[in-house]
Give the backbone structure.
Amino acid sequence: MDTAQFNADGWEQLAPGVARRRLPFLDVTIGLVVGDDGVLLIDTGSTIAEGAQLRLQVLELTGRPVTHIALTHGHFDHVFGTAAFAGVRVYGERSLDGYLEREQHALGEDAVKQGVDPGPASEAADVLVRPDQLVDDACELDLGGGRTALLFHPGAGHTTHDLAVFVPGTPGVLFCGDLVEESGEPLAGTDAAPAAWPATLDRLLALGGETALYVPGHGAVVDARFVRAQRDALTARFAPS
C-alpha cells in the first residue's frame, strides 16, 4: 500500500496496512485493514453507488478485493452500500441481524430525510444485506501476514448492537463507529442506550489505552483524552434529573 496513493484518493493511512476515508456525505468514516490474505472494510456508506465506489477504490489501492466487511451498527449511512460487495463475509453484532430485518424500510425513509435521493434510498433498502457472521462478544479475524483485527461488542451506547474493531500495532487503531463522534455531538436516537454509553466508552479505553488512535464514525481521528472527555459529557448529559 502506497501512502501517497492513499492520500491522493482521499484515504488516510493510520498505521501500516490500516487506513480510513471520510466520505463527503455526512462525513461518514470508512475503515480499511489489509493483510497478506484478507482485506477488511469497516462500514460501507449510504448508497449502493457509494459502496461500489469503495469496492473499486480498494481494488485499485491494494490490488485485491474486499474479503470481509464489519458493520459497526445498523444506521443507513453505515450499511446501505453493502449490497455492492457480492460474496463477501459480513460481520455484525448478533442483534444487528434482527434490527435490520425490522427496520429495513424505516432505514430507507430515514435516508431520504437525511438527504439521500428517494430512488437510491429505496433500492438500498430493498436489497439490504444482513450480516451472515454474527458476533456475540468478540471475534478475531486473521487477515494473514501477522495482521489481525478484533471485532468486539463493547456494550450498548449509540445503539444496542454497536461493534468496534481494534487493530493491534504501533500505534494500535480502534474503529469506534458512532460510539465516538468528533464532528458533532454524539447522536442518541430512539435505539440508543444512554445510561450504558459511558461504561461502553470505558471498555473502549481499556482496550485501546493511551496510545491508540481512536477513529470515530464521523470526524477526525482522536486520542484517549478526547474519548474520556466525551464519556464525561455523555455522563452529564444523560444523568438522571
User: Anything to note?
Assistant: The domain at 3-237 is CATH 3.60.15.10 (Metallo-beta-lactamase; Chain A). DSSP finds seven helices and twelve strands in the chain.
